[in-house]
Amino acid sequence: HPENGDSSPLRTLCADLHAKIEAFLQEDVKTEILKSVQSQCRHSLSIISEALEKYPLTSLSLSYNGGKDCLLLLLLYLSLLSTHPHLPPSLPAILIPPAHPFPTVDAFIQKTSSHYHLSLSRYTAPSPSGMKAAFASYLAHNPSIQAIFVGTRRTDPHGGELKPFEMTDRGWPSFMRVHPVLEWRYSEVWAFLRWMGVEYCELYERGFTSLGGTNDTVPNPRLSLEGAEGRYWPAWMLEDEGEERAGRIGGG
Ligand code: ATP
């Protein structure tokens, strides 16, 4: 235990997650999918460890929008913090809310920020393409932040060429983007979240497979329940991973 007598709520949470993930990694799992999830976990944990070696905790933040990929990332990040010598009461995180948020997603973000001890800053983008300006304000108000964990995966719209550590592009406010879950496949994300038994945003139970705003996201038509109009299978039932964003309108 790094600091004797330190039993802050964040440290207790991290220790519980660490124990759970370690137990998963030690388990002699029988299915191919869980074997691949184990190796994805190890790989992601090594990238997060590297970030923790390179950057002091006070300079790290997490880009968090309540989606499945950043939830996965958050769980792995917290588990590694269980042995960190100096934990703050809560961890920096940044949300750029969509122009038309789902109340359900908002509620999930609030609930999980509190449960996982995130100190979540919300920065509104001045226009639909105003992410840059939102990040610029965030960094101007939080000058210690140097690197931000992002839950992008290879199959996301801009995921193709990314490396685990990648500075922002020219014209962007400068910070290191850290992508620990880049190589996870859709089915692996769900296998992990379901194995962990954590709560995820309820829209995923209603056929949404990727979350945006109310103006650009609908349930995934591939999950539509035949003969039951308006009802959908849960996100984790999607078999064709190439269809993950079939519920996103306009390539959002
Ligand atoms: P889903 O694909 O199911 O919506 P997700 O939101 O975690 O899950 P993406 O939408 O592919 O994944 O986004 C990739 C990552 O980019 C997120 O995990 C998060 O780290 C970051 N991100 C995306 N949108 C936002 C946002 N509006 N505010 C903060 N971070 C965001």
Structure description:
The chain is an alpha/beta fold and 252 residues long. The protein has helices at 9-26, 32-54, 68-80, 103-115, 131-141, 186-196, and strands at 60-63, 91-95, 118-122, 147-149, 165-167, 176-178. It has a six-stranded mixed β-sheet, covered by helices on one side. A hairpin with an 8-residue loop joins strand 5 and strand 6. It is globular. The structure holds adenosine-5'-triphosphate. Residues 63-65, 67-70, 94-96, 98, 150-152, 156, 210-211 line the site of adenosine-5'-triphosphate.
List keywords for this structure.
binds adenosine-5'-triphosphate; 252 residues; 2 domains; Rossmann fold; alpha/beta; single chain; six-stranded mixed beta sheet
Short description:
The chain is α/β, with parallel strands linked by helices and 252 residues long. The protein has helices spanning 9-26, 32-54, 68-80, 103-115, 131-141, 186-196; strands spanning 60-63, 91-95, 118-122, 147-149, 165-167, 176-178. The termini are far apart.
CATH homologous superfamily descriptor of the largest domain: HUPs
Secondary-structure content class: alpha/beta
Estimated share of beta-strand residues: 5-15%
The end-to-end span amounts to: 44 Å
Produce the secondary structure layout.
Blueprint (H helix, E strand, L loop, with lengths): L8 H18 L5 H23 L5 E4 L4 H13 L10 E5 L7 H13 L2 E5 L8 H11 L5 E3 L15 E3 L8 E3 L7 H11 L56
Helix pairs in contact: 1-3, 2-3, 2-6, 3-6
Bound molecules: adenosine-5'-triphosphate (ATP).
The site of adenosine-5'-triphosphate has 17 residues, from helix 3 and strand 2.
